[in-house]
């Protein structure tokens, strides 16, 4: 019998303020991408991290997305508590208007 190991997927979408911290929305989107991608390889249990910036800019679009995979729930918890993540999250919280998140196991 094959038993599949559990993996956690963490997906976040943000809508950004038109301007924040002296930057326009496009600049802050790029900064978010840089800050989050810099976490790859720094946090144990973080298997994959991908950041996308929306190009449609439609009525229902978010501006930035994060797709990440973790070994388990403990790894996701460790990621949330990690100082490097907290630093990136503090920036995102200053420039975002809205946040949506989904965490699930596969």
Could you explain how this protein is built, in words?
Helices cover 33% and strands 36% of the residues. It has a four-stranded antiparallel beta sheet. It has a two-stranded antiparallel ribbon with strand order 2-3. The chain has a single domain (8-105), classed as Alpha-Beta Plaits. Helix 1 packs antiparallel against helix 3. It has helices at residues 25-37, 73-81, 83-95, and strands at 8-16, 19-20, 23-24, 46-53, 64-70, 96-105.
End-to-end distance, in Å?
18 Å
Q: Given the C-alpha coordinates, what overall shape results?
A: globular
Which fold name corresponds to the CATH topology? Alpha-Beta Plaits
How many separate domains?
Answer: 1
If you average the pLDDT, what whole number results?
96
DSSP summary: helix tally: 3
* Oligomeric state, counting identical vs distinct chains: single chain
Percentage of residues in strands: 35-45%
Order of helices and strands: EEEHEEHHE
pLDDT below 50 for ≥5 consecutive residues: which ranges?
Answer: none
Query: What is the spatial order of strands in the main beta sheet?
Result: 4-5-1-6
Helix content: 25-40%
Structural Rg: 15 Å
Biggest sheet, in brief? 4 strands, antiparallel
Q: TL;DR of this structure?
A:
This protein has 106 residues and is an alpha+beta fold. Helices cover 33% and strands 36% of the residues. The strands form two sheets. It has a four-stranded antiparallel β-sheet.
SSE map:
Elements: E1 8-16, E2 19-20, E3 23-24, H1 25-37, E4 46-53, E5 64-70, H2 73-81, H3 83-95, E6 96-105
């Amino acid at each position: 019998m094959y038993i599949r190991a559990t993996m956690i997927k963490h997906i976040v979408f943000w809508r950004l303020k038109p301007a924040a911290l002296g930057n326009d929305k496009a600049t802050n989107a790029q900064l978010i991408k840089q800050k989050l991608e810099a976490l790859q390889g720094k946090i144990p249990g973080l298997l994959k991290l991908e950041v996308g910036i929306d190009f449609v800019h439609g009525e229902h679009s978010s501006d930035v997305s994060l797709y990440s995979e973790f070994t388990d729930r403990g790894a996701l918890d460790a990621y949330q508590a990690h100082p490097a993540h907290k630093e990136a999250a503090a920036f995102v919280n200053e420039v975002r208007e809205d946040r949506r998140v989904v965490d699930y196991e596969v």
